[in-house]
Specification:
Elements lengths: L1 H17 L2 H12 L4 H13 L2 E5 L6 H11 E2 L2 E5 L6 H5 E6 L4 E6 L6 E5 L6 H13 L1 E4 L2 E4 L5 E6 L12 H4 L2 E6 L5 H12 L10 E2 H12 L5 H15 L13 E3 L3 H17 L7 H12 L4 E2 L1 H5 L4 H11 L4
Parallel strand pairs: 1-9, 1-10, 2-11, 3-6, 6-9
Antiparallel strand pairs: 4-5, 7-8, 12-13
Helix pairs in contact: 2-4, 3-4, 3-11, 10-11, 11-12, 12-14
């Protein structure tokens, strides 16, 4: 037992050193983004966990600007793709072009070949385009003609989507939504924050973030995040939360059986563990505590639970279900 305590103490000191750059990244992002702490934390968790992030909110809430700013703090390749109803898979991944000079077909790579890919308004494009992005997200590779190309590392898709009620949107397939580590819901700023936003946007010069990290720094940090200690009790806590979405009656919530069409997949357990480790790292800690799991739980689970018509008729949301699960399951 003493050995474990010593190991955790050493790990804690290592994580404290290795995570020092988090403050610097936050400082750079805050030069540009006012408020939105939850959004910034979510983007950093995605970056450190090698996961993709889906951002949902009405237009004008700085979703695109936040992603752009994060990409600027890392000296990495960044591409933005505006998803429209007439977008084709070739516009995303690339295509074969005939070269008259060489008398042969050559590969022209698309904008998905970057470290950070911002898929803007992803739910405005039809299924074919979304499935092309799905291969890139899942396999970290792209097939053009008969050639398969590895995508650069790190590779991260940050997708923004408008709320489904908005005109001209296609719901994303469940299989694709499940590929996102987190789904962050962005809300309006407070009156004070909006006053500051207004001042910055009408000033002579708009602030800009500086590059303070390289892609190698990110890859090294990801390896360190994997070392964060996850106790068996915390593992059990994560499993209880995920299993409660599948079998609510087993967790003293029989009334939710008719509300949930399908529960979270095993990918939810993996991502909840990954995101909790990354959150602990952001807080400069070498071990995960239950509060870390609770802090990321809504963002990891809100897009992985299917609701029945009954739940929708009662205006029940996945947020409500996750909150109820967290209130019902014993904290270790």
């Amino acid at each position: 037992m003493a050995d474990i305590s010593i190991q955790i103490k050493e790990l804690n000191e290592k994580i404290e050193r290795e995570s020092a750059f988090i403050e610097r990244i936050n400082q750079e992002i805050r030069k540009v983004i006012v408020g939105q702490k939850h959004l910034i934390d979510g983007l950093l968790i995605g970056l450190l966990s090698d996961g993709h992030v889906l951002l949902e909110g009405v237009p004008g809430l700085a979703k695109t600007l936040a992603v752009n700013t994060l990409a600027h703090t890392v000296n990495a390749a960044f591409n933005r793709i505006q998803f429209t109803p007439d977008l084709l898979p070739a516009d995303l991944i690339g295509t074969m072009i005939y070269s008259q000079k060489n008398e042969e077909f050559q590969v022209k790579k698309g904008p998905v070949f970057a470290n950070f890919v911002l898929a803007d308004e992803i739910n405005r494009s039809p299924a074919k385009v979304q499935s092309a992005l799905l291969e890139a997200m899942q396999e970290k590779q792209v097939t053009i003609g008969s050639n398969t190309f590895e995508l650069p590392r790190p590779f991260m898709v940050l997708a923004t989507q408008n709320p489904i009620e908005q005109e001209g949107t296609y719901p994303l397939p469940e299989a694709q939504v499940d590929r996102f580590l987190l789904k962050l819901v962005i809300t309006y700023p407070s009156k004070e924050e909006e006053k500051q936003i207004m001042r910055e946007n009408t000033a002579h010069e708009f602030p800009a973030a500086n590059a303070i990290l390289s892609t190698d720094d990110i890859l090294r940090s990801r390896e360190t995040v994997k070392e964060v200690y996850l106790d068996e009790k915390i593992e059990q806590y994560i499993l209880d939360i995920v299993f409660a979405t599948r079998f609510p009656a087993d967790y003293h919530m029989p009334s939710y059986t008719n509300m949930i069409q399908y529960g979270a997949s095993p990918r939810a357990s993996i991502n909840l563990a990954k995101a909790s480790k990354a959150y602990a790292f952001i807080k400069h800690r070498g071990f995960v505590i239950p509060e870390d799991v609770r802090a990321v739980c809504h963002d990891v689970l809100r897009h992985r639970i299917g609701l029945t018509y009954e739940a929708e008729a009662e205006n029940m949301t996945t947020e409500d279900i996750v909150t109820e699960i967290l209130n019902n399951i014993e904290v270790p």
